[in-house]
Amino acid sequence: MLHRTCAIIIRSMDYGEGNKIVTLLTEGGSKVGVIIRGAKKARSRYGSLAQPFTYGEFIFFRGGGGGLGTLNHGEILASHHLLREQLDLAAYASYAAELTDRTLQDDEADPFLYAQLKACFESLEAGKDPQIVSHLFEMKILQRAGYDPQLDECVSCESQDAPYQLSVGSGGVLCRRCSHRDPYAIRLSEVALKVLRLFRSLDLWRLGNVSLKDETKQEVKKAMRRLLDAHIGLQLKSRSFLDQLDKYDL
Length: 250
Description:
7 helices
């Protein structure tokens, strides 16, 4: 059966001497593996179409039993070449792509996740703070997985009296009176808490230019890492590379 869809390439790997297999995240929110024959050859008409992060229109044949499809025709709609050429942007884009690939099962379809990843790549290429973009995307991943932290009131007593501490095990914030319930809860400044609340309610398409102090960004990073590790629990190579960039301030 012939399929036609707009899609984002979230993974690309060599296959044989001259071919590539790409994983598409389609506009319907499903993952599809497609062979692009001859993509590695110097004069291939589809070599550029097989690059990671590319957004394009793909026409491919796929049998009724599923499995890999074979590209018939394709056109690049947005190459996102900056996301491959700049080391920091490549690292953040790779992380978003791998996080999407690992959290979305092969038999699932999530158009919202497709839209958020598309917005993520466009925001990175537009020069918005990549760390903010990345953490906002992480929050969308958590929310679609059913782990939406309660940040507006204490999860234990429903108090709205700040300051709060974030308890990933309890699913949100604890007030001062209830903080003893989780000895591993982490303190949050009012600014960091406001940022996390913003992430919960904000769609990536609506993200403007956000400027935060380094200490606030570190607080937010720590909070998001705790939430992801507790509720998603994936070991990602791309995240390890991001940590190395952060360590050496590259």
